[in-house]
Amino acid sequence: MVSVGYTLMSEQAGPKQLVDHAVRAEAAGFDQLVVSDHYYPWLDSQGHSPYAWSVLGAVAHATSRAQLMSFVTCPIRRYHPAVVAQKASTIGALSDGRFTLGLGAGENLNEHVVGGWPHVQQRHEMFEEALQIIRPLLNGETLTFSGNHFDVPDAYVWDRPERPVPMAVAASGRQSATLAAEYGNGLISTEPDRHIIEMYDDAGGAGQPRYGQVAICYGPDEAECRKLVHDQFRWFGMGWKVNADLPNPDSFAAATQFVREEDVAEGISCVEAFGKFVDAGFTHVAIIQVGGETQPMFLDWAQEQLLPRLREL
Q: Which of 55, 139, 147, 249 is most buried, judging by how many CB atoms fall within 10 Å of its CB?
């Protein structure tokens, strides 16, 4: 059976709201809680972006059953990879082993706050070095590392869960799928692309978890849902190459100024989109409900109607 997750979308809710949503989602029956790790929202209208790791700590303490995951954390600019390993192990200990560290190569939107955004080739090199640092630290090893981009003279993570925190890696092509298989314990992809799964399996990832994500907007009025999605989520369909390089919400607003309401609405669905991930071979799929203020209503509906229907898939 596919694990059904709920996304704590930090760009559209404050920290206390996110913890409340997590508790409600667990009670509603969601299997997993994933949290976005941003410094900025995509668009000003979303209105939030608290520190994801503080939220994760509070969620770990306030919940008891649901699996937790960062979706995703970039370990190459804003955070040093050795610090990412420490943070992840702490959340793993707080949650009694319920946490998975989701990692990706990041976006300019969040990482430029500490300096320049490297070229994509350099980012990929940095990302692989970061994985080489994080993995042994999660496993309880003492690490000395000297690379082209990172140095770790001497590091050891003292507080860890009984089992090392698993690490899932975001992939969009053969190179990143190979990295995910070599260093991680799972694959993350935002597209229901069977070819990504096949590349991951061919590289040695067969049998490991595969994580996807689906955006929806539930509400009593379809016209209002369409307006909300256009206002807050019209960036969603621009693709990784664009989203990775735009520097701030104003840039996303400018890049999407000609995106029509009907264009966005076509890309936001529910059971059909979820089913595509299932058919492609994903084992975990997290739902994003667009709109911070709509979450309590959505969670009530999900418990009564959505989750039973998705579990039938």
A: 55
Close Cβ partners of 155 (under 8 Å, ≥ 6 residues apart): 82, 85, 133, 137, 142, 143, 144, 145
- What is the pLDDT, as a whole number, of residue 271? 76
- Cβ 102 vs Cβ 72: under 8 Å: yes
What DSSP string runs through 189-210?
-SS--HHHHHHHIIIIITTS-E
Give the relative orientation of helices 81-94 and 120-138 as an angle to the nearest 10 degrees: 40
Q: Which amino acid is at 36?
A: S
- Bridge partners of 285? 4, 212
Question: In this predicted structure, what is the pLDDT of residue 291?
Answer: 95
* Overall pTM surpassing 0.85 (yes/no): yes
C-alpha to C-alpha distance for 37 and 33, rounded to whole angstroms: 13
Q: Find tokens 């809710």 and name the residue.
A: 13
Which residues of the chain, if any, have pLDDT below 70? Answer: none
**Separation in Å, CA 199 to CA 48, 50, 184, 232, 249:** 36, 35, 14, 33, 34
Show which residues are catalytic: 38, 107
Q: Which CATH number fits domain 3-311: 3.10.180.10, 3.20.20.30, 3.40.50.720, 3.30.2290.10?
A: 3.20.20.30
User: Measured between alpha carbons, how far is 127 from 72 in angstroms, rounded to an integer?
Assistant: 13
Give yes or no for a contact between 219 and 232, defined as CB atoms under 8 angstroms apart: no
- What is the rounded distance in angstroms from the CA atom of residue 303 to the CA atom of residue 300? 5
